[in-house]
Amino acid sequence: MDGDLRFSNPLTEITNFILLDSFLTANWVTLKDAFLHLILPSFTLAAYPIGLIARMTRAAMLEVFEQDYIRTARAYGIRQYVVIYLYALKNAISPTLTVIGLTFAFALTGTFFVEILFNWPGLGLFTVRSLLNLDYPAIMGMTLFGATGYVLINLIVDLLQAWIDPRVSLD
Prior knowledge:
With 171 residues, the chain is mainly α. The chain has one domain (16-164). It has helices at residues 5-8, 18-24, 28-65, 68-75, 80-118, 123-132, 136-164. It is extended, with a radius of gyration of 22 Å. The mean pLDDT is 85.
């Protein structure tokens, strides 16, 4: 497409989120352009966590498949997908949930680099500028925000593990 989208398809700002504003105003050309500009940063953020979670899930599933109750369920003739999803995955999900929680926490800090690399205005760029300008209240605020995010994510992971696995107690 030739030209600058600001002139050929101006966007009416409602929420200051380009994807949402272009959808709400039915500006399909801007919506497509904004979506295409999200592909590379999304892959950049998702590449490491997807590999880590997949490896962890595989390792936990291989360990669970060696257990006696899985061999017993297969010997009884229970269907393979029931054995995998009902018995094996339920017991292998606990360590994977921990890795997923840590990955979300990693994403809090990983987005800083992606925002700087792709020149997105966001909390990461704000934090870097605050560090460079020695803006101590902003630095402390972002540190507190990051620490609160880590604590909340760990709390959610612990609650999910207790909900999924009744052997885990919150005492």
